[in-house]
Amino acid sequence: MRRLRHALGLWARVLRPTDRALLKPLERRLGRLARLVGRVRDRDVMLELLEGEALPKPRRGDAAAVARLRARWRDDARTGRELLRVFLRSERDGHLFEQIAATLTLTPRTDRPVDVAHLLTTEEQDRAENVRLAHRRARRKGSVTRLHRLRIQMRRLRHLDELRGRLDPDLPGGPTPAVRRLQGQLGRLHDLDLVLEGIGAGLAATDWGLAIRAQRRRLRRSIETTLKERRWPWQPTSLPRPGGARS
Questions:
Q1: Counting Cβ atoms within 10 Å, is residue 190 exposed (0-12), middle (13-18) or buried (19+)?
Q2: For 105-155, what is each residue's pLDDT tens digit?
Q3: What is the pTM of this model?
Q4: How far apart are CA 33 and CA 8, in angstroms?
């Protein structure tokens, strides 16, 4: 869903203003659907962590409260899925995806044609700069907000890189192993943040909740160490920068 939204945003920039206006309400509908999918996904991740081996096991005194939490999250997950099913049915009946597909047959503007290679290169430069800025701020202070912002900006750049790779498979570049590891760590940290936000103040103060906090603290320190030891290691794709400079 995120990849589709990003690609549609770029596609809109090569269309005539009148055609671009046709795409805007579809983008809004797609955005609402994507947010609902994201909430269902977050609950699934929280349940998977709670029921798997990734989190500390609750001690006997906390086990009953954790079991009640698990039951409540399962109910929430079912409710979220039912809501998503209704929403998907509504959008299917409203022909959302057929209408999106129809916009892909529109003819790009000819009065002021857009150089797609230039557009993608400029977009990559902008997203890479956003990542570098988020990376620099997170290096200075690895707060929850700054690390979350870095994760989002890295994901946006990765999605663009994947799109460019589909358009031209010969393009080199893409995330290095170090970047992929950092993205994985940031993703796990975000999942732990979701769990700690979802368990509530009561369980957060138990031995089990404190153990999860300690786990998150260790992961956060590891990320902060990585950020301080390494500068931004992304290898961008290789289309020339506008004006002839190398990307």
A1: middle
A2: 999 999 888 888 889 989 988 998 999 999 999 999 989 999 999 999 999
A3: 0.83
A4: 15
